[in-house]
């Protein structure tokens, strides 16, 4: 039987907060923004460049005294001033950035290693690719860079980026070792292992991949993450550390648990459609309990759905939403007869949860224990723990386990951050439901918003295996989704200061959009509720001006020995090449600053910190 932490019953939702959100959302939709940040209509979302609403003022429609004074204190950031943007770099570092932005071919590295030898090759890498994208070999080696960046207002998200550089055949063997454990006919194709996609690195340039070997290897990964957490705590007072769930346990658990969660959510959507509630946003759908009980009884269910839900909610209205429905999973040990879903092929109801062997139970428990150990170390070290997003067939389980950690550790302050990939069609539903749950239960919502790192692999897998493509159709629709999710979280921060978000983006328009919305809503940088994040070695013209303007901004800082971070560097070079092809502006700014220093006699400039 699946092991899921039992959690307390949901706290009563506060009607006044819900009303304020409705008012705020209406006002924000009607706020006039500049054409550079206006969003066009998409998926039923009104354009943010629409006409102004009568009776509602700016900053989300909240009337405040001293609005004129507040407006005078609005912060703007100029991303064109190269002297300020690159004041943390000497001229050789600028030249390296410019050269690598033009030519980042990495395939010649194997040949160079053979010609130069290991020692000379390591020195060459530290002057080029490694020096650009990696902070150093160990936690002592990285301290100078972290301290330098910190002196210019830029923090760090530490990530020990050592990984196995194995062949595709070996990757397939490792990933397929667990395929035989899949229960025959267990469910959807998406949540089953497939040999063609067993090497999960295929088509992925922006994220690291872990392969399951055994439980001892997972313990080793945990110890590595602990060292990274301690290094982050020892290097700065306000750092982050990144982890991946697939490094901490058997991927089969994540596959099967993800299928359970998705089946349960889709069954709710199906039931809502039977009551004429289809076509609504996830949080707007409601099930009328009397109709639900009648329908389930007709299908052959024996459970008392009406009695269970009305008995656990003091303010029961006779209706439930998706979050109430999901609470059945939390308390599943007491109500296993309610956890049934229809089997369309067999025409009958069947248990939602499959049976597990004793060893599988132990593997799942050990994975959860490792996650808990990391969370405790992060709390003790004063470090925020950032859980990276992964492939969609793992992500429902990863998000759920992260949510359980947030319930436990985010009560007083944001310690655990979940990652939301906005290239997914369901991103907005995921964000809104988790925000609502955090409000009901009273913990700090904390999110990192990214566009996503697995697009090509996800699309190819969906096409070949035969399920709906989970990715938005194009880049513009992903941009709209990103801004839609971001606006929702920013609104929540304005309503109650318990929400937090990291805008992890290299897109200057997205950063400018965030600054505009913060000014509209009266969100002050020093509140440390809105963070910004970029990769080390990329987009310094965004990161450092933000930091010097007082915004909390962070660089994703990888570290590890040269020969062991080669897979990471290979991906970074690929991503940088693709990214820089559309980033002519950054090259122009780098060249502009080099010419300015040459003309002003500052070519030998050295950063002071």
TrEMBL record:
<comment type="pathway">
    <text>Amino-acid degradation; L-proline degradation into L-glutamate; L-glutamate from L-proline: step 1/2.</text>
</comment>
<dbReference type="GO" id="GO:0005759">
    <property type="term" value="C:mitochondrial matrix"/>
</dbReference>
<dbReference type="Pfam" id="PF01619">
    <property type="entry name" value="Pro_dh"/>
</dbReference>
<keyword id="KW-0285">Flavoprotein</keyword>
<keyword id="KW-0496">Mitochondrion</keyword>
<dbReference type="InterPro" id="IPR029041">
    <property type="entry name" value="FAD-linked_oxidoreductase-like"/>
</dbReference>
<comment type="function">
    <text>Converts proline to delta-1-pyrroline-5-carboxylate.</text>
</comment>
<comment type="similarity">
    <text>Belongs to the proline oxidase family.</text>
</comment>
<dbReference type="InterPro" id="IPR002872">
    <property type="entry name" value="Proline_DH_dom"/>
</dbReference>
<feature type="domain" description="Proline dehydrogenase">
    <location>
        <begin position="146"/>
        <end position="578"/>
    </location>
</feature>
<feature type="region of interest" description="Disordered">
    <location>
        <begin position="35"/>
        <end position="67"/>
    </location>
</feature>
<protein>
    <recommendedName>
        <fullName>Proline dehydrogenase</fullName>
        <ecNumber>1.5.5.2</ecNumber>
    </recommendedName>
</protein>
<dbReference type="InterPro" id="IPR015659">
    <property type="entry name" value="Proline_oxidase"/>
</dbReference>
<keyword id="KW-0007">Acetylation</keyword>
<keyword id="KW-0642">Proline metabolism</keyword>
<dbReference type="GO" id="GO:0010133">
    <property type="term" value="P:L-proline catabolic process to L-glutamate"/>
</dbReference>
<keyword id="KW-0809">Transit peptide</keyword>
<keyword id="KW-0560">Oxidoreductase</keyword>
<keyword id="KW-0274">FAD</keyword>
<dbReference type="GO" id="GO:0071949">
    <property type="term" value="F:FAD binding"/>
</dbReference>
<dbReference type="GO" id="GO:0004657">
    <property type="term" value="F:proline dehydrogenase activity"/>
</dbReference>
